[in-house]
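User: Fold this; tokens only.

Assistant: Input:
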Amino acid sequence: MNRTLRYGTLLAGSLLLGACGSDDAPSESELYPTPEFVDVDPSKTTTQLSGFAWDPEAFFINLVGCPFPDIRCAPFLLDEGPLYGFSAVQRSSIFAFDPITGGPTGDPIQSDELGVWTLQGVPSRTTVPFFVTSLPTGSLNPAANVPPGAYLPTVTLRPVVTHNSVCHVQEAASISTVGILEAVAKHLTATGSATQVADFVDTKKFASVAVFWNYQPGSPLLRAPGSCTTVKATANNAPVGQTFNVNWAPPGVLPPFLNQSKRGYFVDDQPATDGSGTKVSGLGITVVLLRATTSAPPQEITYTLVDPTPPYDPSHDNLVPDADPTQAPCALKNRVKERDGRVKGDQFNPWLFQRIAAPPLPGVITFAGNQMWRRNQPNGPEGALSPNLCLPLPPP
């Protein structure tokens, strides 16, 4: 995987030959003619995209149940990290989805045994982006200690602008049939709406199924769950769809009525602590469903990532220092302690993120893994764009 996740920089220079202020300047060489600049039409150029195929559900399961007793499993998606190998999807079929044509840019290619893939010949353009898509193929490493399951076709909701942009490494996520969406299907069935996981990719039943996983601010490779957050969906400034916040516990440990999936995920709304009544996910996982109807779906859905955790106020801190985080996880979230015991939560919460506007994509699962920003972070909604997006470079 090192061959694609590590990049060197190629430096090129030009040598100017000639005699400055001399009448003895050599005549133009016939062997090495003067270079001529040719302006290439960007519409006729192509881009190579490289990246990795991974299973976010499996990554988290291995994170909380670190399979290496002598190693601290940090939540970083690194090629040499102890967790990546157990979440990489082998032989996953990948292509770049083109919203203009409504289909792939070419034939799908397969990821290798480390989940690495490379797409050649993707058109270069600065306008409509592409979206990396994985087909319902592939599998985890047999050594991965994760309940196995099939995959659903998944579009990673991360725009890839292929001309004049930074497109080093792209993610191709795959959402399973035995994890987050199985939990939502079980919850719907238990509450009176019989649902199978396969229904989520049935265009006659759902116009859009979007799975959001919010991550904490930090390095673009950090995959630490952004606890106590949620997502709100609107179209034409009106709420749309059904929203379900999802949590996790070891498979089989919860009472049957909580409808855990085989991988341990379950629908569980946590109350926010700002008094608004907002329901959030303890792991930052939110699923937004838009059912198919006889009328046309909205052309665009706006997703707003929400962190209702209020800034830390020491004058209203009535929690004991070592409170049980399972009793009030969102209340404790903004109480980050220094080594000397001081609380510095006021620097971190609430987290922020720009709104996401995307068209409904029936027949596939939309996955958005979003890193949020700290309030005092320069790359925030009021500043530059997130460094993990593949968007055009700013003008010099």
